[in-house]
Amino acid sequence: MKTFIIIGALSAFFSVGLGAFGAHALEGKISQKYIDTWNTGVLYQMFHAIGIIIIGVLMGTVSPTSLLSWSGWLMVIGTILFSGSLYVLSLSGIKVLGAITPLGGVSFLAGWILLVIFAAKTM
């Protein structure tokens, strides 16, 4: 429970910081295409930070299961792969990194599906 709340809160913190960095430090230094890519990473990181926090709260209110735990970890992995690859792509321009992004997206989708299954079975 506490682990996911802390990870989610830290991820939200970094999302705000990275969003500000993108808006102020990167403006004029990278193309608008990569600013937009950066912002997509920030947006998805924040959405999933909130999801991770919700999972942490759920773990404290119901009997946690492996479905719930895996849902949280898949969102963490998804954030690293999806948002992380978009940040590196934006800064480096190395397009092959775009091949990693869908793996993060699949992790996000799997995490949300496991949360749905958890809710359907438990609540």
3D structure, described in words:
The protein is mainly alpha-helical. 83% of the residues lie in helices and 0% in strands. The protein has 4 helices and no strands. It has helices at residues 2-24, 32-61, 66-92, 101-122.
Features:
DUF423 domain-containing protein, mainly alpha, 123 residues, DUF423, transmembrane, membrane, transmembrane helix
Quick recap of the structure?
The protein has 123 residues and is an all-alpha fold.
Task: Walk me through the topology.
Blueprint: H1 2-24, H2 32-61, H3 66-92, H4 101-122
Strand content: under 5%
Supply the helix-strand structural class.
Answer: mainly alpha
* Secondary-structure element series: HHHH
How far is the first residue's CA from the last residue's CA?
17 Å
Q: Main β-sheet: number of strands, strand sense, barrel status?
A: none
